[in-house]
Amino acid sequence: MEPQLSHQVTDSVATVVIRHPAKRNAMTTAMWRTLPPLLDTLARDAGVRALVLTGEGGTFCAGADISTLQGSPEEAQALAVAAEEALAAFPKPTVAAVRGHCVGGGAQLAAACDLRLAEEGALFGVTPARLGVVYPASSTRRLVSLVGPATAKYLLFTAELIDAGRALGTGLVDEVLPEGELDKRVAELTRILVSRSQLTQAAAKEFAGGRTDRDAYWTAQARGSGDTAEGVAAFLERRRPRFTWSVSTSG
């Protein structure tokens, strides 16, 4: 099978699958380039309310295909950073579903997701020190925001792998599931995500990301959306709310 990113949309959830089984789902140059436009298409799709990123088979992603570093390491890193930033900026909730190795560029992608769920046995590592590569500043800051400076330094200085239990303890992972339970939990979580207010989620994602110049924008969106009135009415009437505000149509 040729290395590729495949995707499908089911019940308002887009699932993007990293497929490169010959190299434990390592990301090629073409795959890095493919991700940002794919995410842009899914962001504009009103039928998509959440996104799951995962790897084919028993591995999430073993990093960047090392052969991509033989030409221009700087170009390869720039492509990886562009893909990471596109994933972090995706305006709807994102979930990394991790099995097996989540290393290097794989950890970079997982960290850019909003939530990370892992199966027992998963291994995580940030490994540029094995190759003499300077980890990007933006990626380093994102890692520090997740796990704190001490753990970020441990991961970056040693390039050692840590197991899912330790990743959970550091905040790199939000939940660890027994073997065979990951897909069920991801499906349950995404059902919850797509049932909630996209307005609340989109605003919270920006605020949590540190953006400070759009307070007035979100106040106006909330005032004009009708979602608050609908949410209150649904609560009082003991029914499921029918939220209508959408990232894809908000302009």
TrEMBL record:
- List, alphabetically, the CDD domains matched: crotonase-like
What is an example of a Pfam family matching this protein? Answer: ECH_1
Q: Which family does it belong to?
A: Belongs to the enoyl-CoA hydratase/isomerase family.
**Can you name this protein?**
Enoyl-CoA hydratase/isomerase family protein
